């Protein structure tokens, strides 16, 4: 039988060799196992990536871990280098025959030691595989959590990218349609009709009186009331002399409030034995006589007409509150030069005399004058402004009254004398006419 040579095997470190050894046998098998495991790891990673949809960063990270693990395993599976004798035999030129097998080189003891080393290496590889598997499981669990978050973010971005452009294009017609729908629903529902009516700010007039004056009814719609609110306000103001201002206020959904502002009491007017209230707009309330409590802190006008009281209130409301509080009583003191001359008795003991038509202009100067005089004084503002003691001023008034009465007496005497002379002349004329006729 012819000898069949062994298949040439390429050694990773020493090139091609036809020698058969246990080392070659196990090296070849381990390399094949490593390649298979590497292929299996790549397939497993690709399947996990497709299932978990990992981000590109995690794919590169786990691929690097698998590559390093396989490289480390292949390095650990390499057996110790050949002995010096083996290298010597391989380098011997006479030993280059590929078909020659050196029976003396084959040592059972050496192979047994190598087998033990292989078993130990395999056990270490198994332990390393278990540690790597546990580490991989930890990374896998972490990656699953991160992959879930990544998927959610991706879905969110996808939803935004789909619906946002549509909403940007459709927001105006959608918003307009929604507004039209809400307005239509509001007018159809009962909520569009008046549900509650309230009045605030009223003191003299009752809420029922104001509600009646407004003309509002339960079935009226809020929209119709809103269109006529100016007319309703004026209607309430015209029917009540004390109402200075009326304003409709709308509260969602269907409550209406009338906020009323009334005129305040300004002064009291005494005409004869009856006293009336005069409002801050000059209106004299003659529907009922004023009570003592109502006029307690108000200035009292004595024997003023309604028109004169209105003129006084118009000027009075322009004064400062401190000046208003000083005035207690007002009487008419006309002179020959000033028919509307009035005297204001003040709470500080002084008296101011001024023309009613000049009251708003001259009376604001009184506070500065009051600091320079000692009460009781009379401050006369008829022609210029001067102050006299009350006794001196009364003496002057008496002298003026005496002079006035004397001048009146002289005028009456002159009138009587002229009348008597006229009668004498008329008598002589008549006698002359009678004699001539005879």
Automatic annotation (TrEMBL):
Membrane-topology annotation of the record: Single-pass type II membrane protein
Bias type Basic and acidic residues, positions: 1-13, 33-45, 86-99
Region of interest called Disordered, as start-end residue ranges on this chain: 1-99, 408-438
GO CC, alphabetical: cell division site; plasma membrane
Keyword field contains Endoplasmic reticulum: no
InterPro entries reported in the protein's UniProt record: Cell_div_FtsQ/DivIB_C (IPR005548), DivIB (IPR026580), FtsQ_DivIB (IPR050487), POTRA (IPR034746), POTRA_FtsQ_type (IPR013685)
Record keywords, A-Z: Cell cycle, Cell division, Cell membrane, Membrane, Transmembrane, Transmembrane helix
Protein name, entry field: Cell division protein DivIB
Gene: divIB
């Amino acid at each position: 039988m012819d000898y069949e040579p062994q298949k040439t095997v390429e050694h990773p470190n020493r090139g091609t060799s036809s020698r058969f050894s246990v080392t070659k046998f196990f090296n070849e098998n381990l390399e094949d196992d490593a390649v298979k495991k590497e292929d299996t790891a790549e397939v497993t990673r690709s399947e996990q990536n497709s299932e978990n949809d990992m981000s590109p960063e995690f794919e590169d990270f786990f691929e690097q871990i698998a590559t390093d693990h396989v490289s480390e395993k292949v390095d650990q599976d390499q057996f110790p280098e050949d002995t010096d004798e083996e290298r010597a035999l391989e380098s011997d030129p006479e030993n280059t025959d590929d078909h020659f097998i050196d029976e003396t080189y084959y040592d059972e003891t050496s192979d047994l030691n190598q087998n033990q080393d292989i078993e130990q290496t395999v056990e270490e590889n198994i332990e390393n595989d278990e540690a790597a598997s546990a580490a991989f499981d930890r990374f896998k669990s972490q990656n699953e959590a991160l992959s879930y978050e990544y998927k959610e973010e991706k879905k969110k971005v996808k939803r935004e990218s789909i619906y946002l452009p549509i909403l940007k294009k459709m927001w105006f017609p959608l918003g307009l349609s929604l507004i039209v729908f809400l307005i239509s629903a509001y007018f159809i529902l009962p909520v569009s009709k008046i549900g509650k009516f309230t009045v605030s700010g009223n003191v003299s007039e009752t809420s029922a009186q104001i509600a009646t004056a407004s003309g509002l009814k339960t079935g009226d719609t809020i929209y119709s009331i809103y269109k006529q609110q100016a007319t309703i306000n004026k209607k309430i103001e015209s029917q009540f002399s004390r109402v200075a201002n009326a304003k409709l206020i709308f509260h969602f959904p269907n409550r209406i409030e009338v906020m009323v502002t009334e005129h305040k009491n300004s002064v009291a007017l005494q005409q004869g034995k009856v006293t009336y209230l005069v409002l801050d707009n000059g209106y004299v309330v003659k529907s009922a006589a004023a009570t003592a409590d109502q006029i307690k802190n108000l200035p009292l006008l004595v024997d003023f007409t309604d028109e004169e009281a209105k003129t006084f209130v118009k000027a009075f409301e322009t004064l400062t509150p401190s000046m208003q509080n000083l005035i207690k009583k007002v009487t008419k003191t006309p002179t020959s030069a000033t028919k509307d001359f009035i005297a204001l008795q003040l709470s500080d003991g002084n008296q101011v005399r001024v023309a009613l038509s000049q009251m708003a202009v001259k009376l604001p100067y009184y506070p500065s004058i009051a600091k320079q005089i000692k009460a009781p004084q009379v401050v006369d503002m008829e022609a210029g402004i001067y102050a006299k003691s009350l006794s001196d001023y009364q003496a002057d008034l008496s002298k003026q009254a005496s002079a006035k009465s004397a001048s009146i007496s002289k005028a009456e005497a002159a009138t009587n004398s002229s009348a008597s002379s006229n009668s004498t002349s008329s008598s002589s004329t008549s006698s002359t006419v009678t004699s001539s006729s005879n």
